[in-house]
Amino acid sequence: MKHLDRRDIVKGLLITMAAGLSSSCATISGAPARVVVIGGGFAGMSCARTLKKLSPSLAVTLVEPKQHYIACPFSNLVIGNGRPMAAQTFSYDRASADGVNHIMQAATAIDADGHQVTLADGRRIDYDRLVLAPGISLNFDVLEGYDQAAAELMPHAWQAGGQTTLLARQLAAMQNGGTVAISVPENPYRCPPGPYERASLIAHYLKTHKPNSKLLVLDSKERFSKQALFMAAWKSEFGDIIEWQGLNDGAKVISVDPAAMTLHTEFDRIKVDVANIIPPQRAGKIAQLSGVANATGWCPINAATFESTLYADIHVIGDAAIANAMPKSAFAANTQAKLCALQIARLLNGKKPIESKLINTCYSLVTPDYGISVAGVYQPDKERWLAIKGAGGTSPLLASRKTRRIEAQYARQWYASITAEVFG
């Protein structure tokens, strides 16, 4: 894996961001320009706070109905009984301290022509630029038998919180010798390696506490992120506890029966004790309601500015955006948010957008002290983010136990750093 390229990109982006600090007087007709950010995750929170740092005079409003944010990264450790939920929970106090106006309401509609956002309580707020960072919504219309009620029996745990603790409780209550199944959807979805990290940490829990149990990974794909690394680790760490089946094995789950705890594939009917159903996904609800998402369910953008190709003055960042080669990850959301904030500050000051490369690194834990990673560097090309060949890579397939422990430490350091930066 090349580290120099990624350090250079980070350095270049920081220099660019510093140059943008001179853009401190963004106004529209003499009044402070108004930027509304919908969504308070890694993307939205990063963008709102960066906007205020770049242009303190901006009127920045964060529309986020929750008082606290529960992070998905590292939530698989909660499921595997290795981390308290409190370590995943963050407040929005720093946004308010920075001068961001946090409105604890859901956005229910967007008037793109009138430049207004309608809130759940009926209020309307005006904007000059709007940033959508709504994350994902789960598509309950695709998998037969799986809806929000079914998720209370077969949790998805793909939006951290109550579903996370529900899946953890089900695993704890399962008898030794039971069967757990994870159903993995087709691409794209939030955090490409996430299901496989989850499988790893559940297998670690089973090996430690319920060694006669088995984990089935029923995948809708034949290829997945860090596949060779995961499969080598599963063999060495868990023996025959994990069984992965892919599309060519007929393993795609096509329907479920929550009452009978059964999953149906093209060829089999599989009864399990615990089922983690990760359904197909699309951009968050407000993107669907406002028409900013296209027929794919995701939001097309102009890569350099993250401005919607469907509506002017609306930007989309994070999981909801079609960022092509860039994965839907917290790291990517954070870097996209910073660049988007800079572009908005420049546009509001009558300056042209700049072009900048972005990076992403995804860490995964196989066990609490066994880490692996994949990294990439990306450049904008009109409506696409393209990977720069040779500028990224994965952890070495043949590495010492010490190297895996170091990568696990890097993962924890990354999580501590990004959450401190975004929410601390």
Description:
Strand 14, helix 7 (227-238) and strand 15 (242-245) form a beta-alpha-beta unit. The protein is of the alpha/beta class and 424 residues long. The relative contact order is 0.16. The radius of gyration is 22 Å and the shape is globular. Helix 6 (194-209) packs parallel to helix 7 (227-238). It folds into two domains: 4-65 and 105-138 and 281-419, FAD/NAD(P)-binding domain (3-Layer(bba) Sandwich); 150-277, FAD/NAD(P)-binding domain (3-Layer(bba) Sandwich), CATH 3.50.50.60. The two termini are 30 Å apart. The protein has helices at 4-20, 42-54, 75-79, 93-97, 162-173, 194-209, 227-238, 285-290, 330-348, 401-423, and strands at residues 27-28, 31-32, 34-38, 59-63, 68-70, 89-91, 101-103, 107-111, 116-119, 124-126, 129-132, 136-138, 179-184, 214-219, 242-245, 253-257, 262-265, 269-271, 274-277, 281-283, 301-302, 307-308, 314-316, 358-367, 370-381, 384-387, 393-394. The protein has ten helices and 27 strands.
